[in-house]
Each structure stands twice: as structure tokens, then as C-alpha cells.
Write a structure and sequence with these properties.
Number of domains: 2
Number of strands: 14
Oligomer: single chain
Order of helices and strands: EHEHEHEHEHEHEEEEEHHHEEEHH
Shape: globular
Radius of gyration: 19 Å
Bound molecules: nicotinamide-adenine-dinucleotide, (2S)-2-hydroxybutanedioic acid
Strand content: 15-25%
Length: 366
């Protein structure tokens, strides 16, 4: 049996976590042979609810669930964490845009970035879900000067999965028949779900769908799916968000299937002409515990306009939170040429993974 890894989750008594934690404990995220320690973090007033969640986790008797610890502050909760899932934040209600949460949630992520910097494992992998996810990831990573910006990501896998599900439903296919979906940009209504590289049963999706349907129905539907769910449920998506978190982390840690492309919100290194220094969703492949942008994709005029619009929104959001972005981390976020992190999961005593590890054990220039 492998040694357990530490997974910190904020907002652990919230709606998303009520699906997420049970999937992690069942081995859906880290693999069926990987024991986990759950470090659950909540606001002080929600600790009693959190105790209830912990009791339920215990009552499931998951063989892979090694330990559960409960924390009312991130400084304790992030200690030695190998993975940090930043879910805890206020969700939007009907009629709001995700960017309306910027003022309220931004401070949370500045503190969490500092706490990750000071207390988490040096190879911690961070996934920000709390909205607005891209800009919150930027705030967290800019407040963590000793970590690489490439250790921070934000959740756009939900948009990727939505695009896949909606396309499959439209074409009478299953999601297994679909490949090459790409989400570009912000997790917001400006995101660009791109089907130009998508395939259905191995043939071009664009040759099998009506262009007007793609432009006038599919794109706005994916962009506004979160709001559609809030209107229907009275609260934001939770189970599908949890599934997307599991999918994104699993692929990052264990690797994507050969040939598979996924979408991940990562720091722009200038690829595809996107301004450096913002967290932007790109098509990526993962291996050795790291992600790599898929290069060489042809971008037509229609795509370029949409990619630029969502980039501009991220730059506008960045301007609003400039006061939370320390100057000392500006340079590291402008020059992400190499990934110095090895992808190796080190333990608190600085020993590495066991010999059957799937991770590479040397640093490598990406
Ligand atoms: P929720 O209100 O049900 O739960 C959030 C929990 O976070 C609450 O229990 C709250 O006490 C806790 N919390 C708030 N601030 C905290 C902090 N500083 N430290 C620790 N815990 C804290 O909300 P939810 O439905 O679970 O959604 C959580 C966030 O995820 C929202 O911002 C929502 O908009 C966002 N979201 C993002 C995506 C995405 O695809 N990126 C998808 C769905 C939801
Ligand atoms: C979603 O996409 O479902 C979440 O970001 C919640 C929201 O506010 O839309």
C-alpha cells in the first residue's frame, strides 16, 4: 500500500464538498491504491456542520481514508498539504455575474496564498474553485512567492465537461465518442468553448453540426450554463462541480489518456498570444504530474475574437484586485519559461514517493 497523501479542502462543509469529499475518499481522484488524509477547513461558525460531514465520511468506512483532521483556519489546515482544493468562498445568486463576487472573495485568496506559501508541502498542487476562479487563482499564486505559479490552477474542467455533455446530447453520441473539446479563457460568460478541433467518433465535429447552432446556441449555452442551473435549482451547481474537480486533479496528477486534450485554467506564458500573467484556460495534456499546453492549434478569426474578449475580461478583473498582488511576484508571473518543480510528491520528512511511483524523479525543462 502506498503512503497516504495530504489533501486540504476549504469550504469543506459547503455544497460542493458534500459531493467532493466522498469521491476523494472513495479513491476517484487519487487512484484506487492511494490512501488519503483529508485536512478539512471551514469558517469557525461552520465547524459543527463540518463535524457532521466528518462523521458521515467515517461512517462510509472507506478503506483509503487514512485520517480526517478539522481546522477553523487555513494556516493549520494547509500544513504539509500535497494538494489544496480551494473551494470555500461565497457563491453567486440569481441575477449576479461571478465577477460580482470579486470584492467579497478576493481577500480570502490572498490569505490562502500566504498560508500555502508558509505551511504547505513545497510541491503542493493547488486547484481554485471559488469564484471568480481565475482571478482568485492569480491572487493566491501572487501571494505565494516561494511556490511556482505553475503549482496553481483554476477550475475550467466543469465548462469542458459541460461542452462535451451538451454536444453529445445534441448529436445523439456518448461523451466517450467525443474528443478535442477546448475551453479558452475565463470561467465566466465570456469563456470560449471551441469545437474547431473537436471530433465525434473520430471525424470533425464541425462537419457534423450546423455552424449557426454552434455559434448561436451551443456557445451561449455553455457560457451561461452556471446561471441556467442557478435559475433552476435556486443554488449553484455542486455535484457537477465536484466531479469536475476530481477530473481535473486526477488528470493533473495521474496523467491524461494518450491523445486526450483537457482544459485547465493555468498561468498564461504568452502561448497563443495571450497576455502573460493571467490565469487563462488552455488546452493541455498532463504527464509526470505536470501539465503542458497543446501547441500548434490553428486559430481562425472567429476564435481569435472570442479568445481576445475573454482575455480582456481577465485583464479587467486583474486591474480591480491589483492592490492584492504584491510587486515581488510580478516578475515570476511574467516569465514562466520553465517549470522547476519536479512533479514529485515529497513527504513532510522530505522523503520521496515509493519506487513504483508514476512520477518522474528528476527536474526537467518543459
Ligand atoms: P457553499 O456556500 O455551499 O459552501 C461554501 C463554504 O465555504 C461554506 O461552508 C463557507 O462556510 C465556506 N467558506 C467561506 N469562506 C471560507 C474560508 N475563507 N475558509 C474556509 N471556508 C470558507 O458554496 P458552494 O456551492 O460549495 O460553492 C463554493 C464556491 O465555488 C463558490 O464561490 C461558487 O461560486 C464556486 N463554484 C465554482 C465553480 C467552478 O467551476 N469554478 C463551480 C461551482 C461553484
Ligand atoms: C458554475 O459554473 O456552475 C459555477 O461557477 C457557479 C456559478 O456561479 O455559475
Amino acid at each position: 500500500m502506498r503512503r497516504p497523501v495530504r489533501i486540504a479542502v476549504t469550504g469543506a462543509a459547503g455544497a460542493i464538498s458534500y459531493s467532493l469529499l466522498f469521491k476523494i475518499a472513495a479513491g476517484e481522484m487519487m487512484g484506487k491504491d492511494q490512501p488519503v488524509i483529508l485536512q478539512l477547513i471551514e469558517l469557525p461558525h461552520a465547524m459543527n456542520a463540518l463535524r457532521g460531514v466528518a462523521m458521515e465520511l467515517m461512517d462510509c468506512a472507506y478503506p483509503l481514508l487514512h485520517t480526517i483532521t478539522l481546522h477553523d483556519n487555513v494556516e493549520d489546515g494547509f500544513k504539509n498539504a500535497h494538494y489544496a482544493l480551494l473551494v470555500g468562498a461565497k457563491p453567486r445568486g440569481p441575477g449576479m455575474e461571478r465577477s460580482d463576487l470579486l470584492e467579497e472573495n478576493a481577500e480570502i485568496f490572498a490569505r490562502q496564498g500566504k498560508a500555502l506559501n508558509d505551511f504547505a508541502n513545497r510541491d503542493v498542487k493547488v486547484l481554485v474553485t471559488g469564484n471568480p476562479a481565475n482571478t482568485n487563482a492569480l491572487i493566491a499564486s501572487r501571494n505565494a512567492p516561494d511556490l511556482s505559479p505553475s503549482q496553481f490552477t483554476c477550475l475550467t474542467r466543469l465548462d469542458h465537461n459541460r461542452a462535451k455533455g451538451i454536444l453529445a446530447n445534441h448529436c445523439g453520441a456518448t461523451t466517450r465518442d467525443i474528443g478535442g473539446i477546448m475551453i479558452w479563457g475565463n470561467h465566466s460568460a465570456t469563456q470560449y468553448p471551441d469545437l474547431h478541433q473537436a471530433t465525434i467518433l473520430g471525424t470533425s465535429a464541425m462537419s457534423q453540426i450546423d455552424t449557426a447552432w454552434y455559434r448561436d446556441e451551443f456557445i451561449p449555452k455553455v457560457q451561461k450554463r452556471g446561471a441556467e442551473i442557478i435559475d433552476a435549482r435556486g443554488q449553484s451547481s455542486a455535484a457537477s462541480a465536484a466531479q469536475a474537480i476530481v477530473d481535473q486533479m486526477r488528470d493533473w496528477v495521474l496523467g491524461t489518456e494518450p491523445g486526450e486534450i483537457i482544459s485547465m485554467g493555468i498561468l498564461s506564458d504568452g502561448s497563443y498570444g495571450i497576455t502573460k500573467g493571467v490565469y487563462y484556460s488552455f488546452p493541455v495534456r498532463c504527464n509526470y504530474g505536470r501539465y503542458q499546453i497543446v501547441h500548434g492549434i490553428e486559430i481562425n478569426e472567429f476564435s481569435r475574437q472570442r479568445m481576445t474578449a475573454t482575455e480582456q475580461e481577465l485583464l479587467d478583473e486583474k486591474a480591480v484586485v491589483e492592490h492584492l498582488l504584491p510587486k515581488e511576484t510580478e516578475e515570476s508571473h511574467q516569465n514562466l519559461h520553465i517549470c522547476l518543480r519536479s512533479g514529485v510528491t515529497l513527504y513532510a520528512d522530505n522523503t520521496g514517493p515509493d519506487s513504483d511511483s508514476r512520477f518522474m524523479t528528476t527536474n526537467r525543462v518543459m
